[in-house]
Amino acid sequence: MNPDSNPWNELDALILETLKEKPERELPLTFTDTLLRKVERQLTWRELVREFAVKTGIVTGTLLVLILCLILPVRETTNPFLLLLADHWKIVSGVIFLILFTFFSDQVLLKFYTKQRLLDTRS
Amino acid sequence: MDDATLIAQVQAGKEHANRYLIERYKNLVWHMVLRMVSQPEDAEDLCQEIFLRIFRDIGKFRGESKLSTWIGAIAYHMSISYLRKKGKEILVPVEDYFPVAGTRPVVESAEAALDKSSMKKLIHRIIDSLPVHYRTVITLFYLEELSYREIGEITGMPDGTIKSYLNRGRQAIREQLVQLVPDLLPVLAEKQ
Prior knowledge:
B: 2 domains
C-alpha cells in the first residue's frame, strides 16, 4: 500500500465521473417525430379556430351594426319582423346557435380532421 | 443557427426549425426532467408537454436570456408543478438534509467497491434519493455544464444557494457511500 495514497481522492474522482455521466435511459428514437406531429396538430387547430373567430366576428359585427341601426332610431319599434323576432327570441337563439355550430363544424372540425388524415397518410 | 434565427423560423411554422429546436434541446430537458421526476414514463410525457408549451409560448421569449436557459426554466417550473400535483415534497432547506442511517437502500460488499460499474450504479441510486433541488442543481452543473448564473436563471436560486446545494450534495453522496459500504475506504487505500 502506498503510504501517501488518499482513498478519498479516488472516491471523489469516481463521484465526479459519475455525476458527469448521461443517464442510461434515453428518450425513445420516435420522440421527435411524435412530438412534431403533436405540434403540427396543435398549430393547425389554433390556426383554424383563429380563422373561425375572425370570420364569425366579422359577420356578427356587421349584423349587430345593422340591428343597432334599425333599433336605435325608434325605441319602440312597430316593424312586424323585429317584433316577431323579439317574441320568439328562444327559437331565434337556437337557430343562431345551430348556424354557428354548422359553420364551426365545416370550417374547423371538418378541415382539421381532413388535414390530420392527410398528414397521417403521408407519414 | 443562432437563437434569433431559430425563433423566427419556428414562429413562421417551418417544420425543419421545429425539428432542429427539439433535437438541440431535448437532452437538456430530458436530463432535467428525468432527474427531477425519477419516473422514466412520466418524464417522457412531461417532456412532450414541456415542448408543446415551448412552441406555444415561443413568441413570449424576449431574448433577455439564452434560449437554453429559457427552455430550462420552463422545464424546471413544469417539473416542480408536476411534483406538487403528485404531492411530493419539494422544499427541503439546505440545512435540513442529512443522509439518514437505517434507511439504506442496499449494503454492498467491499469487493463491489473494486467494481467501478456497481459503484456507479450505487452513486446513481444515492443521487436519486437526494431532495429534488439537489438533484436539479447537480444535473445542471455537472451534466449540462451550466454556470452558476445560468442555473440561477433557470431555478431562480441565488449563487450562494446553488453553491451550497452542490457542496452539500457531494458531501451527502460521499457520506452515504461510506455508510453503505463500510469497508470502502480501506479497500480503496489497499488498491492504491
